[in-house]
Amino acid sequence: MSCCVLQITGLIFGAVGMLGTLAATAMPQWRVSAHVEANLVVFESVWEGLWMDCISQLGLRLQCKLYDSVLALPPPLEALRALMCLAVLLAVGAFLVAIVGVKYSQPSKERPQNVSPFILVAGVAFLLAGGLALVPVSWAGGSIVRDFYDPVVPAPLKRELGAALYVGWASGALLLAAGAMYC
Fold first, then answer.
1. Structural domains in the chain?
2. Angle formed by the axes of helices 75-103 and 2-26, nearest 10°
3. SS3 readout for the chain
4. What are the φ/ψ torsions at residue 69 (nearest 5 degrees)?
5. The dihedral sign for the CA sequence 138, 152, 62, 51
6. Which of 23, 31, 96, 177 is a plausible cystine mate for 48, CB 3.0–4.6 Å?
7. pLDDT, tens digit, for every residue of 43-78?
8. Which residues lie closer than 8 Å to 15 by C-beta, 6 or more apart?
9. Which residues contact 18 (CB under 8 A, 6 or more apart)?
10. Which of 153, 175, 167 is nearest to 36 (CA)?
């Protein structure tokens, strides 16, 4: 019975981690403008994501623009995109395999510990997806913190950690927890 509870809990963690990884990939709030000067009135906020930049003016009007060219993107941004897309694909695949594994590992009277091989595959896939999600989020977070404390970077170009990074960290942790439960 505890095996079934662990599998269902892992499936729930995996589903929430998968959806969170997808949300973090799509969100434009990876890097948000930092207001480090003495200005009390801030007229606009800048959000930078993997796919677009957004500008919020006085909190009333939001304008977002997709990046024009994939070839014009800086290589770190291309790498972050690729890793997050791989993490999403792997998380979706792990979730689907986990559903099949839970369905086919129902205990019976003949075999009370009937565990499907899909369960182990789902666990490894969740662990890989969690690691793949944590790498780009941590990489982006580290570069934001490094640039924030760099005295060479002008104050208007300094950025803070955005909500997408926190969603990514939580999602990566949930995917790792789901993988650990299945393994």
1. 1-27+74-182 (1.20.140.150)
2. 150
3. CHHHHHHHHHHHHHHHHHHHHHHHHHCCCCEEECCCCCCCCCCEEEEECCCEEEEEECCCEEEEEECCCCCCCCHHHHHHHHHHHHHHHHHHHHHHHHHHHHHCCCCCCCCCCCCCHHHHHHHHHHHHHHHHHHHHHHHHHHHHHHHHCCCCCCHHHCEEECHHHHHHHHHHHHHHHHHHHHC
4. -135, 135
5. negative
6. 31
7. 778 889 999 999 887 767 888 899 888 778 888 999
8. 95
9. 88, 91, 92, 94, 95, 129, 171, 175
10. 153
Q: Which token pair is 80?
A: 């972050």
Higher pLDDT, residue 114 or 82: 82
